[in-house]
Amino acid sequence: MSLEQFISKAVSPWLKEDGPDSDIVLSSRIRLARNFDQIPFPIIADKSELEKVLDFFGQEYQHQSFKAYEDLELVQMRDLKPIEKRVLVEKHLISPHLAESNGESAALISKSEQVSLMINEEDHIRIQLYLPGFQLERALQQAFEFDDWLEEKINYAFDEQRGYLTSCPTNVGTGMRASVMMHIPALALTQQINRMIPAISQLGLVARGIYGEGSEALGNIFQISNQITLGKSEWDIVEDLQSVVQQLIERERKARQSLMDQTGLQLEDRIFRSYGILEHSRIIESKEAAKCLSDVRLGIDLGYLKNISNTILNELTILTQPGFLQQYAKKTLSPDERDELRASLIRERLDLEK
């Protein structure tokens, strides 16, 4: 696998697979923060110490495989153009924070893009493992197995009382962030989500936009994750998150049914209007595209729209982002040029479904 392949396809191979409750939960993610025991953490390490970490991963893991995670490719941030970094952020393979780095940092990415390791971000290692649909427990088990494989060669910074030691105190303990990406348009349309987000926060969880902290929930896609990492085991954290997500799934399904029962014709009209906009627009901004894509995905899930792939939301959400549009065009685009290309790519993608 090469960098060109990572940035040339909008949808990671694993995202094309169906998972449990995938009509609402797009993906499940486990992220583990880890640090080397005898090397200063990235926030205080000097260049030579960060290079030591980077060289270690290049020597030990470049093109290695572990179980289904084949051909791990080391992608160094200093070798990437700004647009290439942005594409990797849009595909959730790296964080915006890592993308801002031009020095001794990198990502180790599996061929399927199901696993990516961010190296010398806020911590020496941030393991990310994704599964399609609602599969938090399975994702955690697989993340543990991958973490154990790394630990065969790495001594982690660990304290018997505090757990895994990290640069940010909020990650000390398990060092884990468990999250799910949810498409919950009915809760948004009925405005129930406005009451639920504060309630979620009181349970030690947080609801964010599609790209995590500080991002906007475009297209009614929310990332729900844990905030607490200390004082609970990884399994307890996942169990708490699963319980809340299951309630959100049930409420979203009830809200969808309620919309069909009470406003069926208006809902159908909204869905087909959005489909029409996507099918015929010559210019479309990102927010309008996200809103219309959300409506179309809802229409697919409710059976209003036939013979259209249910992965279209995943694909076009990434395909229409600024970084991917410019990578596709092979040049920097103005906002107006991006809006024109976005509309063109959406029309082309929808034509493939006919």
From TrEMBL:
Its EC number is 2.7.14.1. GO terms for biological process: phosphocreatine biosynthetic process. InterPro entries: Arg_Kinase (IPR023660), ATP-guanido_PTrfase (IPR000749), ATP-guanido_PTrfase_AS (IPR022415), ATP-guanido_PTrfase_cat (IPR022414), Gln_synth/guanido_kin_cat_dom (IPR014746). It catalyses: L-arginyl-[protein] + ATP = N(omega)-phospho-L-arginyl-[protein] + ADP + H(+). The keyword Transferase applies. Keywords: Allosteric enzyme, ATP-binding, Kinase, Nucleotide-binding, Transferase. Belongs to the ATP:guanido phosphotransferase family. This is Protein-arginine kinase. It comes from Terrihalobacillus insolitus.
